[in-house]
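cron nightly-structures :: item 1 of 1
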Amino acid sequence: MDYNTTREKLIMPEYGRGIQQMVEHCKAIADKDERMRCARTIIETMASMAEQTADREDFQKKLWNHLAAMSQYELDIDYPVEIERMDDEEAHPDKLPYPQHRIKKRNYGAIVEQFTDHLSTMEGGNQRDNLAHLVANHMKRDLSNWSTDSMSDEKVADDMALYTDGRIQLDIENHPLTSDGELLSTRVATSLKKKKNKK
């Protein structure tokens, strides 16, 4: 069996093993430009864990320093900030705030609630329809992971209507859902990247 206790110790466990694996992958990329793109994606993912402070300059500096520490200062990129080498005791970020609000349906999680809240405020049109369909596909994937017995397009459509107070009514007859395709987390990372490129 593969237990966390038998795996290599995480340098900064606060970010989780997934981020550490991304850092290791980034270090192995041969092309420097591609390494930099990968590093920026990792930073965006780290920042999304605490979006309320993601735009602060000192927060961004801290993230890049944490990335350097997780790579054991072996990641060869052009860092956009000055990297200050940390010892083992310093290499721990502040605790990330944990969401205090109650999630309506735990099988979907907070990210679906955030997107459905956003959908409720959007004007009708192709952009809202496309995003609604993407969120619905993600919801179906979540249901599939949670319980295959309750996974159906009708269930997702009902839950979408519940989340949006009836504002979004999915046309599942003409546009059936799929549990495959682009992950909502990929869209989140893309959205964050677009926001930063605009600045």
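cron nightly-structures :: done
Residues 55 and 196 are 9 Å apart (CA to CA).
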